[in-house]
């Protein structure tokens, strides 16, 4: 049954301390993410990776997150948040050790695997921390979740600012080796570990009521489970192909076999979820939110992973990093304004999301046209405002509407967003960069294309296999540009094709927030049809069977 409470109330005396401890934990993830995005070109030049390979490594920084947040969300109410924080801390340290092992005269494949799995472990740690921070803040501030979850997630752009600024200074200005740059994320890692030590953390509403794991999963059901299991199937299909090759499967057949195995794993997990919930269908509303958040992950985080590289290529590497720091700072400041948008402007959380989707679509199209730093500043301001409120506001909507799920629904939502960023957003942008750049160079100069084309073909989902530009050879052209050296006519054509690929990649990327806008417009109509958007709260007593069914379905409970 819905209850009304003051919006300023908090559920624990140490609520603000825990909010800032969670802030520091996500900040560590943002610092590491920003620095990795800035050193992608270093990895391409040093190890000869093409854009698709770099996209896959970068994508591991998202897909690994899914496992951390989903598994963490499932066990959070059972083992306690403190143990999950300790596990995340150890995984962050391990990720640094694995990543720093790359280099040293090893083969390109060995370096690829070290960078991939180091990034993947880093992502698991990040996901585990969000499995703690998101439900913890939603529980600590149950009557103003949009505001406080946006404050919590202001730490992400804050980490991007710090990491991006460090990369700009250490990489572009000082030429510091990438391993020393990446080590900086260990500083906030140590700080969040210290801040969480000895703190008491409250349980979620669902946990306090003694709901079982199966009951928490009922709202997710077969519909929501299908979204998560499909992405998990894609993950295993992508990571098992190289393993099958090492086991002797022919290179041409390995991706197909890996796809079959991936879908088999996804089907088994989906059926297991159905068995857990006694084949509950789940809430259609939560299913739509899961789909929308998959798109959020693809456009927000997938784009963030490439935007420094793209704008730095169109303009200069230093300007690309400055723009990234600027949009991240804008995002950091605006996330403290969600309460103003709700209480003063009168926008509902869904209204905020719709506005952001329209702005993000417009901003990406403007960014595809940039020719100067000034115009880039305008375009990325529009995009930066648009992407600001997506992630935390989506979590707030799921928490508001589905309190019976405890940590499960918002953890799965976060996992779906990150998995989508890792499997669709980041690799997809890498694929389209390869596709458009390769097609343009082949159109302009077929012989030059054969000279600069990558030996490794680019693949993405069901799209046609293409050949992009070789990362090492393209890196030599871009290094000459950074040093102010004159380019040959052939090098100018290669660089022009690379920029052409970047512009059209942003145009394709803009289709994602366009789809999101349609979804949010539909949700806005749905909530108006049922009397408006309101948060649902579980009171202390057990609800009647009919009321519980309505809560599970995401409908409004009557106001007493």
What can you tell me about this protein's structure?
- It is built from 25 helices and no strands.
- Mean pLDDT is 84; it is low at 1-8 and 540-560.
- It starts with 14 loop residues before the first helix and ends in a 7-residue tail after the last helix.
- Helix 3 (51-79) packs parallel to helix 5 (108-140) and helix 14 (284-314) runs parallel beside helix 20 (408-444).
- It folds into two domains: 15-220 and 283-553, MFS general substrate transporter like domains (Growth Hormone, Chain: A), CATH 1.20.1250.20; 221-282.
- With 560 residues, the protein is mostly helical.
Short description:
With 560 residues, the protein is an all-alpha fold.
Name some characteristics of this structure.
560 residues, mainly alpha, Growth Hormone, Chain: A, 2 domains, 25 helices, disordered N terminus
Spatial extent as radius of gyration: 23 Å
| Total DSSP helices | 25
* Top-tier CATH class of the largest domain: Mainly Alpha
CATH topology descriptor of the largest domain: Growth Hormone, Chain: A
Helix content: over 70%
Order of helices and strands: HHHHHHHHHHHHHHHHHHHHHHHHH
Tell me about the biggest sheet? Answer: none
Low-confidence stretches: 1-8, 540-560
Structural class: mainly alpha
* Relative strand content: under 5%
Looking at CATH, the homologous superfamily of the largest domain is MFS general substrate transporter like domains
Q: From the 3D coordinates, which CATH architecture of the largest domain would you assign?
A: Up-down Bundle
Number of beta-strand segments: 0
pLDDT averaged over residues? 84
Overall 3D form? globular
Distance between the termini: 8 Å
């Amino acid at each position: 049954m819905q209850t009304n409470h003051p919006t300023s109330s908090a559920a624990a005396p140490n609520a603000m301390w825990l909010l800032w401890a969670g802030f520091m934990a996500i900040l560590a993830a943002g610092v590491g993410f920003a620095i990795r995005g800035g050193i992608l070109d270093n990895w391409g030049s040093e190890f000869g990776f093409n854009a698709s390979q770099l996209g896959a490594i970068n994508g591991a920084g998202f897909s690994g997150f899914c496992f951390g947040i989903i598994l963490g969300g499932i066990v959070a109410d059972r083992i306690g948040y403190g143990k999950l924080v300790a596990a995340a801390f150890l995984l962050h340290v391990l990720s640094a050790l694995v990543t720093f092992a790359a280099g040293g005269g090893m083969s390109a494949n060995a370096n690829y695997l070290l960078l991939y799995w180091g990034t993947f472990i880093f992502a698991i740690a990040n996901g585990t921390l969000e499995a703690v921070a998101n439900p913890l803040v939603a529980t600590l501030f149950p009557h103003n979740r949009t505001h406080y979850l946006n404050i919590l997630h202001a730490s992400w752009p804050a980490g991007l600012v710090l990491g991006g600024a460090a990369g700009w200074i250490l990489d572009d200005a000082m030429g510091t080796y990438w391993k020393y740059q990446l080590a900086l994320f260990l500083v906030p890692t140590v700080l969040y570990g210290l801040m969480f030590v000895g703190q008491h953390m409250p349980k979620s509403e669902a946990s306090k009521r003694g709901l079982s794991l199966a009951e928490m999963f009922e709202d997710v059901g077969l519909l929501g489970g299908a979204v998560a299991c499909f992405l998990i199937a894609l993950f295993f299909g992508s990571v098992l192909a190289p393993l099958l090759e090492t086991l002797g499967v022919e290179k041409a057949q390995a991706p197909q076999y890996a796809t079959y195995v991936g879908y088999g794993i996804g089907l088994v997990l989906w059926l297991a979820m159905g068995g857990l919930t006694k084949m509950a269908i789940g809430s259609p509303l939560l299913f739509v939110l899961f789909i929308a958040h998959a798109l959020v992950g693809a456009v927000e985080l997938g784009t963030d992973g490439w935007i420094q590289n793209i704008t730095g290529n169109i303009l200069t590497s230093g300007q690309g990093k400055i723009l990234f720091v600027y949009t991240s700072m804008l995002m950091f400041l605006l996330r403290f304004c969600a309460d103003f948008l709700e209480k003063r402007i009168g926008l509902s959380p869904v209204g905020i999301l719709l506005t952001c989707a329209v702005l993000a679509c417009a901003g990406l199209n403007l960014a595809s046209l940039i020719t100067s730093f000034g115009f880039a500043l305008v375009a990325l301001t529009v995009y930066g405002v648009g992407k600001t409120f997506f992630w935390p506001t989506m979590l707030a909507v799921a928490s508001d509407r589905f309190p019976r799920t405890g940590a499960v629904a918002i953890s799965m939502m976060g996992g779906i967003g990150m998995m989508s960023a890792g499997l669709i957003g980041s690799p997809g942008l890498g694929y389209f960069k390869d596709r458009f750049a390769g097609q343009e160079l082949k159109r302009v100069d077929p012989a030059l294309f054969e000279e600069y084309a990558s030996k490794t073909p680019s693949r993405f989902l069901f799209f046609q296999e293409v050949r992009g530009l070789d990362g090492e050879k393209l890196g030599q052209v871009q290094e000459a540009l950074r040093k102010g050296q004159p380019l040959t006519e052939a090098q100018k054509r290669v660089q022009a094709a690379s920029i052409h690929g970047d512009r059209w990649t942003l145009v394709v990327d803009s289709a994602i927030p366009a789809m999101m806008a349609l979804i949010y417009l539909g949700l806005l109509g749905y909530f108006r049809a049922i009397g408006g958007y309101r948060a649902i709260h579980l009171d202390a007593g057990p609800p009647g069977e009919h009321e519980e069914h309505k809560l599970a379905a995401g409908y409004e409970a009557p106001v007493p």
